[in-house]
Amino acid sequence: MKIAIVGAGVIGVTTAYELALDGHTVTVFEQRSATAEEASFATGGLLAPAVLDPWSAPGTARTPAVLGRHATLHLGRSISLAELSWLRRWRRAARASARTGAPLPPLVALERLARYSHARLQHLTESLDLVFERSTGTLLLLRTPQDAQGLAPVLKALRDAGTAVRELDADAARTIEPGLSPSLPLSGALHLPEGMAGNCRQFALLLRQAAQQRGTQFEFGTRIARLTSAPAGVQLEGESTPRPFDAVVLCAGVQSAALLQPLGPRLPLVALYGSSISAPLREELHAPLAAVVDVQTQTTMARLGQRVRVSGGAELGRSTPQAHPQTLGTLYRVLGECFPGGISHASGLQMWRGARPMLPDGPPMVGQSAVPGLWLNLGHGASGWALACGSARALADQIAGKTPDIDLEGLGAQRF
């Protein structure tokens, strides 16, 4: 088949590779000048377990506070009615998960996809000999006994799936991460030895090369004016007629909703912005060895080669490119409290703010849309890096008319 992919983030690139692997003729259209320039550029890096990434789904973090000095979600002045509606639905799902103390179906679907994706990532890494910055092991810091309460549904989903979760006291946590500040108050920690963090953009660039070796064409600097159906196709800005394809796969992140709207489907997809700071190591013994999640502030700290990346924050309805000052303040504060002296502030700092394309129930949409010839692989939120490989393989199987190796219940477009 002749297939077009819209978007060259990590979702678009993994989809392109899997389709090319199956023998399709693939063209990827990307408005930026390179791969993984937007939401995939400087993600927090947490790969597994994906549901531990704050904001990955309702129930993976405490119901967000939007007011006060300790707010974890910041609302912009330009927030729309659609974004407010999304927030109500998201908070409702988070409260439902907190009431039951058990994982709701969307969280189970997310964990199932994440495990499948992790296995596919490992297969691709080994078979293609991909070398990118990564680390093994994830430590969740519990500053107070209450910090673990909101994690109950997530931990149950992980344990039900067979994931090893070790409960530690503060001393044992510092044995695993000796760089943790001795003055940091800790009631305990949770350790997941199978956890993993990695550099998303490095992986995307390497896999793009592998896709190109299989004949995939990448057209950068191209904007999609509209999608077409009967026949399926894409019309680029500056071109008078659409380019026809046998199928079109939409992987365009937050732009996906606007591209879909003229064809009928309306998705409750919003941009929930997060931020990260990447800094060079100053002293290895004072820096994290792998991935560390501060449950109280919903902040992730990950070791990526000779750098440390701290990420977090959630901003809804903000149109400015800069991160919220309170978000940046929290990232610097948490890193200083947990790993003082671990990074250099003098030079080499990289600040980033990116959009997480999120649906209100958490899991992405992976499958055929209601429009003939149009397929969806979008809405991965904070877990795009962790879900990319599995989503791409499952979608490629569907396009080929095969039954995917994973149950896709709860991931279809028909749920909205």
List keywords for this structure.
FAD/NAD(P)-binding domain; 10-stranded mixed sheet; 2 domains; 416 residues; alpha/beta; 29% helix; D-Amino Acid Oxidase, Chain A, domain 2; 6-stranded mixed sheet; 26% strand
Task: Walk me through this protein's architecture.
The chain is an alpha/beta fold and 416 residues long. It folds into two domains: 2-40 and 202-268 and 362-415, FAD/NAD(P)-binding domain (3-Layer(bba) Sandwich), CATH 3.50.50; 46-112 and 130-196 and 270-358, D-Amino Acid Oxidase, subunit A, domain 2 (D-Amino Acid Oxidase, Chain A, domain 2, 2-Layer Sandwich), CATH 3.30.9.10. Helix content is 29%, strand content 26%. It is built from nine helices and 19 strands. The chain has helices at residues 10-21, 81-100, 105-128, 152-160, 170-176, 200-213, 256-260, 325-338, 384-399, and strands at residues 2-6, 25-30, 46-48, 74-75, 134-142, 166-168, 188-198, 217-220, 224-228, 233-236, 243-244, 247-250, 270-280, 291-294, 299-304, 307-316, 350-358, 365-368, 374-378. Strands 3, 4, 5, 6, 7, 13, 14, 15, 16 and 17 form a ten-stranded mixed beta sheet that branches. The chain has a six-stranded mixed beta sheet with strand order 8-2-1-12-19-18, covered by helices on one side. The relative contact order is 0.22.
